[in-house]
Amino acid sequence: MGVQISRILPKKEIEIIDLAGKTIGVDAFLWLHQFLSIIRQPDGTPLKDSKGRITSHLSGIFYRSAKLLEKNIKLVWVFDGKPPGFKELTTEERRTLKKEAHRKWKEALARGDLREARKAAQATSFLTEEMIEESKKLLENMGISVIQAPSEGEAQCSYLCKKGLVYSVASQDNDSLLFNSPRLVRNLSITGRRKLPRQDVYIEVKPELIELKNVLKELGIKREQLIMIGILVGTDYNPGIKGYGPKKALDLVKKEKTLKNILKKIEWDHDVSAEDIYEFFLNPPVEDIDIEPKTIESDKILKLLVDEHEFSQDRIEKVVKTLTEAKQTSLGSWLK
Fold first, then answer.
1. Cα→Cα distances 48→270, 305, 329, Å
2. Domain that holds residue 260
3. Is the pTM of this model over 0.70?
4. What single-letter DSSP state applies at residue 305?
């Protein structure tokens, strides 16, 4: 879900070409869940091979990453590690919602309502350890660096951006700004159109660049206060305070200044401590990591996608050929 504060964030539309030659840190779990949610059959069933194994995530990884790499946009995929203990409540709530969505999906299928079936099915996606490991293997075979975060992937992405190892974080969520990333790119895709979650509707979109320094300057706050706004609106670790949207939260934060003062003005009845969430955003577990250039392993890509999961050999070979040529002709080192 992430922190829902987009309405108050200054942002600017950019073109894909603006990111050429730059390295982008990808919030891996968010992208994988996108692929699993959207890449489905008309009745909502995810793509599968003949053995019944889901392949939607592999399709999304391969084709989106390849298109970005062809545009000389360099990628580093960062995977989540162990979440903070206080995230378990949110995780359990999401499991409950997925079970309910699965029930609605089956009911819609039974009555022949494919539109509602697909809509419900999009909320049932889940990641298994097998999917995660195969995703990492495919990315590495494509010459893309894979990083395992000690905790939240967005926190590690943000740290890489702060250290200058990547230009920006790529995510649909705004959490990376709370984790102190200097930049966030949303809608990072070549297609120029995006499907609305759980709807059979597509909208035209362009990548958006959000810079933390501009956010803080325009809102007239400090980064610590941006975290407070997130806590009031709701994060992955706590539901929002009833009645508080981004604008009302901004007004309260600017008036009260500190978390201690804010907690005197609201009713905090959540199991998790607001102070713990605040501290986690300020100082999340991250690691210093060297990002090493990778080479494309064409044979391994074909073995995984074509031999193992029955993707079209012609299509995969064409993309691999284009990808290899693009990498060979790109100027400078593959990673800066």
1. 40, 12, 35
2. 220-282
3. yes
4. I
